[in-house]
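Researcher: Structure prediction, please.
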Amino acid sequence: MRFWHIFGLERADNDEKLLFFMTGGLLLALAVVGIVNPQGLNSTLNGAFGWVLTYFGWWFMLLGFILLAFSTFMVFSRYGNIRIGGQDAEPEFDVFSWLAMVFTVGYSGSIIIWGVGEPISIVTNPPPQPLPVGGVSIESLALAFMFIHEVFPGLAMWYPPFALAFGLIIYTRGTDSYKFSSMLKVFLDDDRYKPLYWAVDLAALVAIIGGVAAAIGFSAQVFSALVNTVFGLPPTMLTYALFGVLGLVFLGDVWLGLRKGIRNAARITVVLMLITFALLLVVGPTLFIANIGLDAGGVWLGNIFRLSLYTAPTAESNWAHQWTSFWWAWWAAWGLFVGSFVARVSKGRTIRETFACLVVIPGVLLWLQHSIVGGWVLAPGYIEPVSNALSSGGIPNALAIAVTLTPLAPVLGALLMLVIAGYVVTSLDSAVYILSSITLGNEDPNARNRAWWGVLLAFLGVMTLELPVFDAMQAFPTVLALPFTLFLLAIAYASYVAARDYYKEEFATTEEDTLITSTKTETNSPLSQGQDDDD
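Model: Predicted structure follows.
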């Protein structure tokens, strides 16, 4: 009994214990391989990444638009009025805390890392001819692709389906277990499917780990580049030390829990983020940022469908899938835990309100932030040295060089590291919360089990410092999310069924009672009595 208590599994059944140790064992084995043979793991990951994009890139694009149509229908139909947790549920968090948790968990350090990496990469290696949109500069086209992938339609494709599924099936409809497999029970509620339930939960855990590990790995390598280039300090050991400090902060958050730990970390991160981007706008190429943000915004809004479905089928390269399909795969992996976490903190809010918090408000913030970051590195005087740094040392080096070119570089570098650190802590916090919840089937998992998940994820993330190529980490979410994509269609259907049945039970009954009451009132009114007397 003491053994299970150490891992927080004292109340877990045998299937849940097996799920924890099998997933944790796979994660640990991958980390060990990465440390012992980083070159071999790098080659394997890149090979798998290329294979998935070549043969299944089209599938991620098609699935994205199916999910976009589904989310749009659910949010703007009558089902948008359904309240997560039931019509009597009250919001658990104030609006700022709610927005802060959704934003920091949902968008992570990719705003900074890929906000630099993607536009510069596209300018350096543009789409094959003919360009998907003619008559525009490559800089504006590159930033427009960034808007496509991280603002819209990316936001509306991948997060809402998971948030809807958890909100409607787990919290509103109600279920006996807090697991991804519980969603299947809407239409497959039979003990004969237990092996399928277990396999779905395993695939979900693996996909979540892939998305989170990539984000932590990206952040670790950016830390290393900033420490070395901006501050001239030994990168590897200091980065390990920084992650050690983050680990202690994370463990403190785990013990403080959702309301005191994750909420406060998210609020602090949002404040730091606003300060950092305000400083960058002031000390950076302000006029160019304003102009290219508007110009790229016009390219984006005028060509959303063209850019979203761009595959360049006659080109020899796999350029389009290396961007759009990669992003959609990462969204799928990341959306598993983000959507479930958003549903958890959105109890008491309607589906429509949750969509606004998850897509509309962050969409505006992300457009502004990517305009600032993209305009910063694409501006004259920045673009050439940053492009050269990208070619020689990858995205982390490009970001670090951009900082050194900017006034108040040490201050900006320190703020960027603090913001990324905040994103790492909040992402780890929410990820382990959901990993532990899915493992134990409990909405409020114990701190011991969450801590073990955090240690395993941090170990895997730091391992990525040993990988020789930054691009290898793109394979984590892309490859690990693929087996789970079919389940996305299943949970979309299950969400619709849950919403339809709940609406019939709650809203139709309420409307019928209102109609009956209204009819009785009219019948008993003096006017109607007078009419009867006259008759």
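Model: The chain has 19 helices and no strands.
Researcher: Thanks, that helps.
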